[in-house]
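To illustrate the input format used throughout this study, we show a single complete record. The first block contains the structure-token representation of the backbone; no residue identities are included at this stage. The design step must infer an amino acid for every position from geometry alone.
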């Protein structure tokens, strides 16, 4: 795993000595992604840089790397899990290799097949290839967006990087927060790809590649999440589906265990991580290191189940605990790494968990992300099913009561009667024909955070309504699709890629030089799960039905049959104690709020007073304080640039330098 950065001046201006320093500074900003080695490639119009976390071919995988005649140069962030098989295919076509790295396989694949080579990759990746002959830059990102890749334009130069903070070191780059994108974050928890929270900074969308030359910038979609209409499902019988899933998933796990360093696993005490651990132990019964995080507040803690799982699998287990002070103390740093507004604090414990792994000198962990999205595990899928059932008899006193089963951890739900539930969950109940029906309620509630923005910011947003925009965008795409598949498609394409795999995944791991690997997100597993009949995923209100049938007698009953508990972390107790860390206190001060000009200081003051009272606060209140604080920090770090300046003696050392003028 690595961090990559670079630029392409399509007017072909000759570089000078300062260009090397610019690349070194860009790499230094993201050296947490790759602390082991650094290298650059420079020619008249392009610069490529890599900060490497060595996992495969530890001694010979230094980037940038070229093909045999040096006509193609590559920097690459990620892992190609089928690189050994692809190498054999290329050797049969007379390609010769200098290393055993997956990076070299990629550049030869590009030489052999051109941009379409990405179809052959099983992996998680962000790739930049410079073609010296065609004089064009190729950028590509994996199918579901596990690894990030951003770009912007500064004058006549395209600048790209694994993280936006790297661009801060490129002369002339002046980021500005986007009011439109903030309104999207305050609705969807993320911006709509390819936008980011910064104006004119874009991501290469998941499943896309980009070709840039002096004449054009073309983006091509090479993969999309498959959708099936009700009469097209490939698997309708549980026995047949189980057999096929076990074959594909077992291979996905085995591929992700390949590394020249130790591979560990997260063990959260839930079904998903227990399934991945079970498959790891079956494939490799040797000692396995597992890691988990618990909470000092019992409402969030799952340590009991984590211990059950660790004892059952007999792993060498490390568990750490997180309290409100840990969240407050680390929040600013985690926003810096996330580079995005946060609406909840859940990424911070994941960052602390990754640190505990790195403290044990481990670089790779296998995790269970993706199972909830692919197999109907989230409460939003069940909530949609109940709301559709309720919509058939909207006056019923009893149908809304089913919703109480989903959110026992919300205080306002414990004693809620039918009328309260109707008020809370009845928003647009009868609009079942909407392609985004599953998410209308969630997005409507979250969008109330926009009320904290100043009048000027709301004016900048204007008539733009993110929910209306996305409904129009998805209407034709989701026509004729089953209601569960619609909800899954939305969750995977927006929430999973934009938030879960970014703020809570890649950024928290790589902040600590840890690579996460996700067997459930093997594209073969994804395509299989989307071809399942809905009842094999969500049977009644029983989520992940296929997994539970598969793992019967292979997991402890306490884990297999436990009720779904959403992963959450404390907010109110972290941000409204008697004393906040000085930096957070400063960011929430009336002076800082007024100076930034993003939020209405009176509204923020009222929110803080409410949260510091003994009155009950809502989930929206919790999300609002997190959102306000994170945006204030983003503005301070990226716009005001209150970050620490880099000194020349802090810049990364270059293990490889290629100058090709």
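Output of the design step:
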């Amino acid at each position: 795993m690595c961090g990559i950065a670079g630029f392409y001046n399509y007017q072909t201006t000759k570089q000078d000595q300062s260009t090397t320093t610019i690349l070194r500074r860009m790499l230094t900003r993201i050296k947490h992604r790759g602390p082991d080695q650094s290298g650059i490639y420079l020619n008249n119009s392009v610069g490529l840089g890599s900060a490497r976390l060595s996992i495969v071919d530890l001694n010979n995988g230094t980037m940038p790397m070229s093909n045999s005649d040096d006509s193609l140069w590559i920097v690459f962030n990620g892992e190609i899990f089928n690189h050994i098989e692809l190498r054999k295919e290329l050797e049969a076509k007379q390609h010769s290799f200098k290393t055993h790295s997956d990076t070299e396989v990629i550049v030869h694949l590009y030489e052999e097949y051109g941009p379409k080579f990405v179809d052959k990759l099983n992996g998680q990746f962000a790739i930049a290839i410079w073609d010296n002959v065609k004089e064009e830059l190729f950028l590509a990102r994996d199918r579901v967006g596990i690894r990030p890749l951003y770009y912007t334009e500064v004058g006549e130069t395209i600048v790209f990087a694994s993280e936006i903070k790297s661009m801060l070191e490129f002369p002339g780059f002046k980021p500005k927060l986007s009011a439109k994108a903030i309104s999207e974050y305050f609705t969807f928890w993320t911006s709509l790809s390819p936008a980011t929270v910064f104006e004119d900074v874009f991501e290469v969308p998941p499943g896309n590649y980009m070709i840039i030359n002096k004449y054009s910038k073309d983006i091509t979609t090479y993969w999309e999440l498959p959708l099936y209409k009700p009469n097209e499902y490939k698997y309708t019988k549980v026995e047949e589906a189980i057999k096929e899933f076990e074959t594909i998933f077992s291979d996905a796990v085995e591929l992700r265990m390949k590394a020249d360093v130790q591979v560990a696993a997260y063990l959260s005490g839930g079904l998903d991580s227990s399934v991945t651990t079970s498959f790891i132990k079956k494939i490799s019964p040797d000692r396995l290191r597992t890691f988990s995080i618990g909470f000092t507040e019992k409402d969030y803690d799952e340590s009991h189940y984590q211990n059950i799982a660790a004892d059952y699998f007999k792993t060498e287990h490390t568990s750490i605990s997180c309290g409100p002070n840990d969240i407050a103390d680390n929040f600013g740093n985690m926003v810096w790494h996330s580079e995005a507004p946060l609406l909840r604090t859940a990424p911070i414990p994941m960052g602390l968990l990754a640190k505990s792994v790195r403290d044990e000198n481990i670089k790779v962990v296998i995790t269970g992300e993706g199972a909830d999205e692919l197999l109907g595990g989230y409460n939003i899928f069940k909530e949609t099913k109940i709301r559709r059932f309720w919509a058939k008899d909207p006056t019923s006193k009893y149908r809304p009561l089913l919703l109480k089963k989903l959110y026992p951890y919300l205080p306002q739900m414990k004693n809620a009667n039918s009328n309260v539930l109707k008020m809370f969950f009845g928003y647009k109940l009868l609009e079942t024909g909407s392609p985004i029906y599953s998410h209308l309620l969630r997005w409507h509630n979250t969008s109330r955070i926009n009320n904290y923005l100043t009048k000027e910011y709301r004016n900048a947003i204007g008539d733009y309504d993110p929910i209306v925009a996305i409904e129009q965008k998805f209407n034709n795409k989701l026509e004729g699709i089953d209601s569960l598949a619609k909800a899954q498609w939305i969750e995977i394409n927006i929430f999973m890629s934009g938030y879960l795999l970014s703020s809570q995944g890649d950024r928290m791991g790589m902040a600590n030089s840890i690579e996460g690997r996700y067997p459930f997100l093997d594209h073969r597993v994804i395509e299989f799960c989307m071809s399942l009949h809905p009842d094999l995923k969500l049977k009644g209100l029983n989520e992940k039905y296929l997994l539970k049938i598969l793992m019967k007698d292979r997991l402890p009953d306490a884990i297999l049959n436990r009720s779904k508990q959403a992963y959450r972390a404390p907010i109110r107790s972290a941000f409204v104690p008697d004393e906040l860390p000085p930096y957070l206190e400063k960011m929430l001060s009336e002076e800082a709020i007024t100076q930034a000009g993003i939020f209405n200081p009176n509204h923020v003051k009222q929110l803080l007073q409410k949260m510091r009272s003994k009155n009950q606060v809502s989930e929206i209140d919790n999300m609002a304080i997190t959102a306000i604080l994170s945006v204030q920090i983003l503005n301070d770090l990226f716009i005001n640039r209150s970050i620490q300046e880099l000194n020349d003696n802090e810049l990364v050392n270059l293990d490889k330098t290629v100058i090709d003028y």
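Structural context for interpreting the output: The chain has 25 helices and 20 strands. The mean pLDDT is 94.
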